[in-house]
Design brief:
303 residues, mainly alpha, 0% strand, single chain, 13 helices, 76% helix
C-alpha cells in the first residue's frame, strides 16, 4: 500500500485546525470557555499519557520545558476561546494567523535575531490588515473579542519562538504529552477558581462581575452535541493533528509547510460561512483586511 504524501497529510491537519474555530464557536453556546478547555485538554492529556507512559519519569529539563511551553500555549488559547465568545469564527482565524508575521519581531526583541526585509514588510502589511479587520468604525466601540484574539496571536508568536529553542533534543511525544497535561491542569485550576469566586457572589450581583466571569456563570449544559464536540476537539484536533503534523513535517521543509499552514484561515472562513451563513462575512473592509493578513503570512514565510 503506497504511503500518503506528506503535503496531503499536512493539508488534512490544516483543515482539522480550521474546523476548531467553527466547533469552538458552536460549543460555546452550551458550555462556558473554561469547562470546555478543561475537558478538551484533560481528555487529550489522558490519551497522550497512556500512549507515552513508558517515557516517564522524564528528564527534569524535558519536564521544565514542557510545562513552560504548555502554559504559554494554554494562555494564548484561553484568550482565543474567550475572544470567540464575542467575535466571529472567520475573524478569529485571520487575526490568530498574525502570529506568523509577528514571530520574527518576538525573536528580535528576545534574542536579537534580525528579521529579513520580507519579514519586516510582512509586519507592516499585517498591521494595516489588522486595522481594517478589527476597526469598529467612527464612534463605535472596539470588539473585546477581537482584542483578546490579538493577544492570542502575540502569545502564539512567543510560543513558536520558544518551541524552536526548547524542543530540540527532547522526545517530541513525551514533550507534547507534558505540554498537554500542563495545559489541562492550568485550565482546570482556572475553572475551579472561577466557580469558587462565582459561588461566593450573591445571585443578584452576578451581573456586576467582569464580562469574562459572567460567561463562566452560565449553567453547564452538557448536551449530546456538546459532548461530541468536546470529544472531537480532544481526540481529533489535539491528539491526531499532532501525530500527523509531526510525521508530515519530518519529510518536508519548513517553508513548504508554511505554504500549507497559510491555508488555515481560508479553510476556517469557508467552514464558518457554510456553518453560520452571512453572519460570518466580515464585510468589504474586513475582507480586505483579511486578504492583507493572508498576504503578510505569505510574504513572511515564502519570499
Amino acid at each position: 500500500m503506497p504511503r500518503p504524501k506528506p503535503e496531503l497529510v499536512l493539508v488534512g491537519v490544516t483543515i482539522l485546525w480550521a474546523s476548531t474555530f467553527v466547533i469552538t464557536k458552536d460549543a460555546l453556546h452550551d458550555v462556558a470557555p473554561l469547562p470546555f478547555l478543561t475537558v478538551r485538554f484533560g481528555g487529550a492529556a489522558l490519551v497522550m499519557l497512556l500512549v507515552y507512559w513508558r517515557r516517564f519519569p522524564a528528564p527534569a529539563k524535558l519536564m521544565r520545558d514542557g510545562i513552560i511551553l504548555g502554559l504559554m500555549n494554554a494562555s494564548g488559547l484561553l484568550l482565543q476561546v474567550f475572544g470567540q465568545a464575542s467575535t466571529t469564527a472567520s475573524k478569529s482565524a485571520f487575526i490568530t494567523s498574525l502570529n506568523t508575521p509577528l514571530t520574527p519581531l518576538i525573536g528580535l526583541l528576545l534574542y536579537r535575531t534580525r528579521p529579513t526585509r520580507p519579514q519586516l514588510a510582512a509586519v507592516a502589511i499585517a498591521s494595516v490588515g489588522l486595522a481594517l479587520l478589527t476597526w469598529p468604525g467612527t464612534g463605535a466601540r472596539w470588539n473585546v473579542g477581537d482584542l483578546l484574539t490579538v493577544g492570542c496571536a502575540i502569545l502564539y508568536a512567543l510560543t513558536i519562538v520558544q518551541i524552536a529553542r526548547r524542543s530540540p533534543g527532547h522526545h517530541i511525544g513525551a514533550l507534547t504529552a507534558v505540554q498537554v497535561a500542563s495545559a489541562a491542569l492550568f485550565f482546570g485550576a482556572l475553572f475551579l477558581a472561577s466557580r469558587a469566586l462565582i459561588s461566593s457572589v450573591p445571585a443578584q450581583s452576578i451581573g456586576r462581575l467582569p464580562a469574562l466571569l459572567q460567561l463562566e456563570a452560565r449553567p453547564f449544559v452538557l448536551s449530546t452535541r456538546a459532548i461530541g464536540e468536546m470529544a472531537y476537539m480532544a481526540l481529533v484536533c489535539t491528539v491526531v493533528t499532532f501525530t500527523a503534523q509531526t510525521w508530515a513535517m519530518s519529510k518536508m521543509s519548513a517553508t513548504h509547510a508554511a505554504i500549507v499552514f497559510a491555508l488555515e484561515p481560508v479553510f476556517a472562513t469557508a467552514m464558518a460561512l457554510g456553518w453560520g451563513g452571512s453572519s460570518e462575512w466580515p464585510g468589504t473592509r474586513g475582507a480586505s483586511g483579511a486578504g492583507l493578513v493572508m498576504l503578510a503570512v505569505v510574504v513572511s514565510e515564502i519570499l
